[in-house]
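Section: protein folds

Sequence with per-residue tokens
===
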Amino acid sequence: MQPSILTSEFTSSPELVEKLYKYGVTKTYQEGDIILDENSSIRSIPIVMKGMMKVIRTEEDGREILLYYIKAGESCIMSFLGGMHNEKSIVKAEVEEDTEILFLPVDKVSLFIKEYPEWLDYIFRLYHKRFEELLDIINAIAFKKVDERLLNLLHKKSEILKSKTIVITHEQLANELGTARVVVSRLLKQLEDSGKLQLGRNKITILEDL
């Protein structure tokens, strides 16, 4: 078996890696594809092999807010919890860039918990990371202004994508922040005027001197 993100994630258990490939199904997706929608049944757990996807929560009024990103080697803890308890999904998972995902059937998730301590440790580590990220979201909404949240989101995207230039629309940013497009457009213009970033057609460049 060729080295993979799973081999790196479970270095102490090559047997677990073999089982993941044996029972999992690998599929590829393009940017914008919906992997899991709200109120959908959860029959398998996605593990990102390459690329990245984002997890979003939709409010009753139709507004969306970004909860967290799922990068290579990671999975969606909300899918774990919902799938193991036979519950509908309460979030939406959308591909952020071209992505390869391994889907593990829910019944194997529970089985591996009993058989492989490394798998249980993996789930706990994911849970801890997502819990901290959700606390950051709550803190930002409660105590930070929208312009601060916007800058933080742009920095996070830049770090994840390893690029100062981010291809995204004002509408998409507004959705991820859970605010109105006109608010984001106004704040971006202010940030451009202050020299913190440069706006282009459906792209934003964070300046080096920021």
Notes: Helices lie at 5-9, 14-23, 77-84, 106-115, 117-143, 146-161, 170-177, 181-193. DSSP finds eight helices and eight strands in the chain. The CA atoms of residues 44 and 106 lie 5 Å apart. Residues 117-143 form the longest helix (27 residues).
